[in-house]
Amino acid sequence: MFQPASVLSRSRMLGESRLVGISGQTALVPVRCRLCAAAVSLLLGRIGRWSGREIARSALSLARSAQAERDNESCFFVRAAGVHRFIRRYTS
Q1: Total domains in the fold of the chain
Q2: For the residues of 37-71, what is the DSSP string, one character each?
Q3: DSSP label of 25
Q4: What's the pTM value of the predicted model, to 2 decimals?
Q5: Which of 12, 16, 58, 86 could form an S-S bond across to 28 if both were Cys, CB 3.0 to 4.6 Å?
Q6: In whole angstroms, how large is the CA radius of gyration of the chain?
Q7: CA torsion, ordered 34, 40, 43, 45, to nearest 10 deg
């Protein structure tokens, strides 16, 4: 299928690629979608080969990371609230 150079260069500048369907119609697919789909496919392929112990270890690691993020946020807000109380107490 022939495409004028202006159409091809414009689609490349927009970060899109052409995908030819079964019926021969073309569609523009954003590069981010293709990369995300490739990453998910790769991850699912690897998970298929993992044992139950590896999956449990990965889930536990993810849960610990999420808890650490929540702890960091709560410490930040407690400190910010303490500073706010300090400023309010000594400025009035």
Answers
A1: 1
A2: HHHHHHHHHHHHH--HHHHHHHHHHHHHHHHHHHH
A3: -
A4: 0.31
A5: 16
A6: 25
A7: -80
Condensed to tens digits (0 to 9), the pLDDT of residues 2-38 reads: 444 444 444 444 444 454 444 555 555 555 556 666 6
Separation between Cα atoms, residue 69 and residue 75, nearest integer Å: 10
Tokens representing 8? 């091809």
φ and ψ at 62, to 5 degrees? -65, -40
Pair of tokens at residue 46: 């690897």
Name the one residue in this structure whose structure tokens are 């790769």.
Answer: 42
Express each pLDDT in 31-79 by its tens digit: 555 666 666 666 666 666 767 788 788 888 888 888 888 777 666 555 5
Domain that holds residue 44: 5-91
Q: Quote the CA–CA distance of 42 and 53 in Å, as a whole number.
A: 20
Q: Is 28 helix (H, G, I), strand (E, B) or coil?
A: strand
